[in-house]
Design goal:
Number of strands: 10
Structural class: alpha/beta
Oligomer: single chain
Radius of gyration: 16 Å
Helix content: 10-25%
Shape: globular
């Protein structure tokens, strides 16, 4: 499995702990790649730094790919398309590409560990949006994400070559197909 935007390797380790035999993580941050590579529980995983959108793997290399919180951390739609095209190119025919990002319809909703945007605010496609992460000490930490509409995800994936795109939306305690 390809873990595109692997960060410190948390998703890679979860995949390995749930039966995936090998994970290859890539990230644009050398610091994150080093942290993932040095983790004592990294198992059968390997990590390498890449330039966004460019993967050093042959066509059809991977059985599946995941991309967690990468699109919302990128404010350039052309870069999103590069990432999706490279994922498509490096996946075997019929393989699955999972994208996990904050649901653009969850503006202002307080979840168990974060709040996405300001209540009542409207964010346009590609706009910056604050996210408030709850810290263990009761305080919150503000980060800035890019707001992409669902149509942007669908258009980018279809332009990259993905034809059977399905959207699954998580609501606290459930997951539904949209």
């Amino acid at each position: 499995v390809l873990d595109y935007g692997c960060g410190r390797g948390k998703v890679s380790r979860r995949l390995l702990n749930n039966g995936i035999s090998k994970v290859t993580g890539v990230d644009i941050s050398a610091t994150m790649v080093a942290k993932a590579s040095e983790h004592p529980e990294r198992g059968h995983s390997s990590y390498q730094q890449v330039e966004s959108g460019l993967l050093p793997f042959a066509d059809g290399t991977f059985d599946a790919a995941v991309c967690c919180y990468v699109f919302i951390n990128n404010n350039d739609k052309a870069e999103l398309l590069k990432i999706a095209k490279e994922a498509f190119r490096t996946l075997k025919s019929g393989a699955v590409f999972y994208i996990l990002d904050t649901n653009p319809d969850s503006i202002g909703i307080k979840f168990s560990s974060f709040k996405n945007g300001e209540s009542g605010a409207v964010y346009g496609d590609g706009a910056t949006r604050p996210v408030y992460l709850d810290l263990p000490d009761g305080n919150s930490f503000k980060i800035i994400d890019t707001h992409w509409e669902k149509q942007t995800y669908l258009a980018v994936l279809q332009q990259a070559g993905f034809n059977d795109v399905q959207v699954f939306e998580h609501r606290e305690g459930e997951v539904t197909a949209a």
